[in-house]
User: Fold this.
Amino acid sequence: MKLTKRYSAFAAMFVAILALDRWVKWWTLDTLTPLGNPGTEPIPGILRFVYVENRGVAFGFLENNSLLLGILALGVIGFVLFRSRTWFRDAGLLGQTAVVAIIAGGLGNIIDRFAYGFVVDTFHIIPLPIFQVFNVADMAISFGAVSLFITLWREDAAKRRSQQTA
Assistant:
C-alpha cells in the first residue's frame, strides 16, 4: 500500500474514532442521567450504559484537576507525535495504527476535560466488579497502548536477533 493511501486510511481512522467517541458522549449526556441512575442494559447482566462524570484518572487519582490533566494529556500527545515523527514512517501497520488510536483517544478525552471539566464515561462491563466505567476514547487508548507495546517488543526482539548473528 502506498504511503499516501495508508496515511489517508489513518486520517479516516482518526476521524472515525473521534466522531464515534463524540457521538457516544453526546448520546450519554442527552439520554442518561448522572450518578445514581442504574442505566440501561443492552446485554442484560453483561453490558450496562451509564453516565459517569470522571473527574480524575484511573481510580479517582488527581480528582477535580481537569485543567491539569488536560494539559498533561496534551503534553503526552505532543511527546508521542514528536517521538514517532521519524519512527512512524518505518513502523509496521500495527505500530502506526497504535499511534493513531492513542492520539485520537487522547484527544477525545481532552475535549471533554476542556469542554465539561470531566470526562464522560458510558460503558460498564457488569461481570467485572473492579472494572471501571469507560468510553470509546479509553478503548482506543488501551488498544493503542497494547499494540504499541507489541510493536516495540517485536522491534526489540528483531534487533537483538540481528545483533546476536552479527
Q: What stands out?
A: Helices lie at 3-31, 66-90, 93-116, 136-165.
